[in-house]
Amino acid sequence: MTPRLLLSLILTLAAAFGQYPGLSLPPSGNNQKASVTQYIGPVRVRIDYSSPAVHGPTPPTGAIADRRGKIWGQLVPYGMTDLGFGHRKPAPWRAGANENTVFEVSHAVEIEGKPLPAGRYGVHMMAGPEEWTLLFSRSSNEWGSFFYDEKNDALRVTVKPRKHDYREWLTYEFPVRKPAEAVAEMQWEDLAVAWTIRVPDIQGAYISKMRDELHNVPGFNWQGWTAAIQYLLRENRNLEEALEWADYAISAPFVGQRNFQTLSTKSQVLAKLGKGAEAAALMKSAIEFPGATPAQIHQYGRQLLGEKRIKEALEVFQLNAKRHGDTWPVHVGLARGYAASGDLAKALEHARKALPQAPDPLNKKSLEAMVKSLEAGKSI
Hints:
single chain, elongated
């Protein structure tokens, strides 16, 4: 093709589509570009599209017409149809206007229960009175569906359309959002077509994301590593990796720090791995660490109470008293420890000492209730 012929072809297409490469001209048919993004946890989902109106231009004059009631099965044909351009094979609807409607997802997901790898896809739709087929094509940089080829399909799913409140402009939304899934929906005129996007391993997606992030700014201090480890502990996932991260938080050059939080975090990992003796020894080091605060030791005692390890909890509260005297929340811990041990007199003694130390109205109210209960001979 000669340069003159190529330019002529570009000008012809530009006239047809109301565009010219490199120039910001009004979009063809005034079908404005739009984009919507939704995160499912760390998974980014984005739909880019051009948005036609119900009251739009009608060929061949281009006059604006009310097309309500003439969209589905007419302006948007049912099934596959010859679009009169391109390779002239039966093709689906472009699911919007102008260039491809594009569905982009940062991680592997499931669409209507079927797997779709991370990537960028051209979205096409085969409309029908009772059933629609959604097609996700690996080709995402085309104009319309003129050159649609089923060989490029990454996925096809079947969904049901439903009635919807009137929409003048074609719109994509995410009307349902859950921790591991979301529903994407195309809405236009009086109809909506939805599909469910699910992340099959949302915890794994978070872990993968955190693993990458720990190689950047969040990993340049021990706090980032311990926060990531706490997530692995909550989910009971990748515990051997968590142990590696715990060692890094304690001793990595320029990053690691030996303190109550890093030591106690590693202790929790060891306990989860069934290494109880090692976990206990390390936790002892944590609560005896010179920098351990009264609040940190107190919270560990509360944890032991929650696990019904009453004798150990009382010993921790007593250690806190020995280390920090009358500092808040030492007496609160002793009150709880003695009450759990059955010594209500000593519990009341320390609850009364804690009351004037209460740092806020909420703690004061809780302590007043504790004192009242103990004075009545009731445990807490």
